[in-house]
UniProtKB/TrEMBL annotation:
It comes from the Bacteria. CDD domains: SpoU-like_rRNA-MTase. The keyword Thylakoid does not apply. It comes from Actinomycetospora endophytica. Residues 18-72 form the RNA 2-O ribose methyltransferase substrate binding domain. InterPro entries: Alpha/beta_knot_MTases (IPR029028), Ribosomal_eL30-like_sf (IPR029064), rRNA_Methyltransferase (IPR051259), SpoU_MeTrfase (IPR001537), SpoU_subst-bd (IPR013123), tRNA_m1G_MTases_N (IPR029026). Belongs to the class IV-like SAM-binding methyltransferase superfamily. RNA methyltransferase TrmH family. GO terms for biological process: methylation. This is RNA methyltransferase. Residues 85-228 form the tRNA/rRNA methyltransferase SpoU type domain. Pfam families: SpoU_methylase, SpoU_sub_bind. Keywords: Methyltransferase, Transferase. GO terms for molecular function: methyltransferase activity. Gene3D superfamilies: 3.30.1330.30, 3.40.1280.10.
Length: 236
């Protein structure tokens, strides 16, 4: 239920962020505080049957509660204006991976997540679930054009750093000075990596060291390593 509380908290801070709440009687009895807060935030609430909830979700075992939220349509240029740490997902199509990176970026204290290129819709149900409520904690931005996304990062004076297994520089002491600057980490899909044009335009291509025999790290793990390297370097 934590994501539901996160969504309601967002509606408390931003009126209109959540429009409707559909809930079964059993959940309503158990989560009375949630309903009280939802009504106080002017969220329309309705008691529905478990069958009705099942038709509103694509999960096998729905939890008895559905929220209808408005999408965050923030413009990247405005949202990135004072950012010091941003995760950029370039062409990441897997919703589970994208949602987990959003959660990781939130945990690391990143200021935003930007999806660009042929990336998944962050409001895909699987992505929302994988974010575990983090979708409501920080700006999650979308810019289809890679060129426009790069322009927004440059305008915000962010160092554009690509996470690349073949990168020229190894993550470690050699990257501390770079990562102490406001930084946008660019991460690509596990299948195709970061698009060539975006990688070529980056300030640096950095590889995460692999000391054992594993071929690579999965996307969420690589994101965590890279983002927390910036957290350390920036003294956050």
């Amino acid at each position: 239920m934590r994501p539901a509380y996160d969504a309601v908290a967002r509606a408390e801070a931003t009126p209109g962020a959540v429009v409707d709440l559909f809930v079964t009687e059993a959940v309503a009895d158990r989560e009375r505080d949630l309903l009280i807060r939802a009504r106080a935030a002017d969220i329309r609430t309705a008691l529905v049957t478990e069958k009705a909830v099942a038709t509103l979700t694509d999960t096998v075992h729905p939890q008895g509660l559905v929220l209808v939220c408005r999408r965050d349509e923030s413009e990247p240029a405005a949202a990135l204006a004072h950012a010091r740490l941003v995760a950029v997902l370039a062409g990441v199509a897997d919703p589970g991976n994208a949602g987990t990176v959003i959660r990781t970026a939130d945990a690391a204290g990143a200021d935003a997540v930007l999806l660009t290129g042929d990336a998944v819709d962050p409001y895909n149900p699987k992505c929302v679930r994988a974010s575990m409520g983090s979708l409501f904690h920080l700006p999650v931005l979308r810019e289809r054009s890679v060129e426009a996304a790069l322009g927004a990062l440059r305008a915000a004076r962010l160092a554009v750093v690509v996470a690349d297994g073949e990168g020229e520089t190894e993550l470690g002491p050699a990257t501390d000075e770079l990562l102490a600057r406001p930084t946008a980490w660019v991460l690509g899909s596990e299948a195709h990596g970061v698009p060539d044009d975006l990688a070529a335009a980056a300030d640096a291509r950095v590889r995460v060291p692999i000391r054992g025999r594993a071929e690579s790290l999965n996307l969420a793990t690589a994101a965590a390593v890279c983002l927390y390297a910036s957290v350390r370097a920036q003294g956050r």
